[in-house]
UniProtKB/TrEMBL annotation:
Residues 2-68 form the Fas-associated factor 1/2-like UAS domain. This is Fas-associated factor 1/2-like UAS domain-containing protein. InterPro entries: FAF1_2-like_UAS (IPR049483), Thioredoxin-like_sf (IPR036249), UBX_domain-protein (IPR050730). It comes from the Eukaryota. GO terms for biological process: ERAD pathway. GO terms for molecular function: ubiquitin binding. One of its GO terms (cellular component) is endoplasmic reticulum. Pfam families: FAF1.
């Protein structure tokens, strides 16, 4: 998905695909990130549920330049 404002518009105003917007903010520098990704985000049941019920917008906050935005 593109920029956040595009994701928000798609989530709110696209009648065919209108679903809640799930924001995923990722930061590699935290100790539990790897475990969360491995145990939660790689779980096929969770993936199927999220894909069926949400529009997902992900942002990688690992780099300071992205974290500041």
């Amino acid at each position: 998905m593109g920029p956040l404002d595009e994701a928000m518009n798609h989530s709110l105003f696209d009648r065919a695909e209108r679903r809640p917007l799930l924001l995923y903010l990722h930061r590699n520098n935290t100790p539990s990130t790897h475990l969360f990704c491995k145990n939660v985000l790689c779980n096929s049941e969770i993936i199927n549920y999220i894909e069926s019920n949400y529009l997902v917008w992900a942002w990688d906050c690992t780099r300071d330049a992205n974290y500041q935005r």
